[in-house]
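User: Working on a comparison across species. This one is N-(5'-phosphoribosyl)anthranilate isomerase from Rufibacter roseus. Can you predict its structure so I can line it up against the others?
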Amino acid sequence: MPYRKLKIKVCGMKYTENIEELMQLQPDYVGFIFYERSPRFITTQWAVFSSIFKQGTSKVGVFVDEEVEIILQKVTDLGLEMVQLHGHETPYICRELREAGLKVMKAFRVGDDFEFDQLKEYATVCDYFLFDASGPHPGGNGVRFNWELLQKYKLDVPFFLSGGISEEHIDEIRNYRHPQLYGIDLNSKFETSPGMKDVERVKDFIKKLRA
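Assistant: Here's the predicted structure for N-(5'-phosphoribosyl)anthranilate isomerase from Rufibacter roseus:
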């Protein structure tokens, strides 16, 4: 996909005014983390800011090894349109969520020893993959991985690129070529504190990427 058309996902949003400010940029996806051990775990009352979402921006719930029933309840209560699974979820769980009418994104942490063959059993039950860096936490570690490793990825499922992405990587993103690259996931490198995004920096990133 040409870099000008890459989807933009901003993940780990937490605070109402910050979310409202971000909505002015009309990102394609906004992610909310429902994992209590994360410093970006969202505790704000959903009703406070659910009305500020604009058409064209999808709400993504990020879960880590959560029970399907709880995920589906969150989807119903909060109007989530996609779930991002960031733990050790099986293909069976992905299928169950997808059959419930959800878009499903499965995250994988990629390192030098990552086995791409394991993705085959997920290919028929996921709409997207997200490739992140290995780190001590399920996500939001703020570190890069070697994107060239993804040249080993040959499946048809489109993917988001994640892991320590910042403004300094814009030229690299423009020059990166992979037929299934679908979007860019922004998180910790654009924060002033966990869950609080510097919206001006996000705006600058999007503007320069799509210039």
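For your comparison, note: The mean pLDDT is 90.

User: Helpful, thanks.
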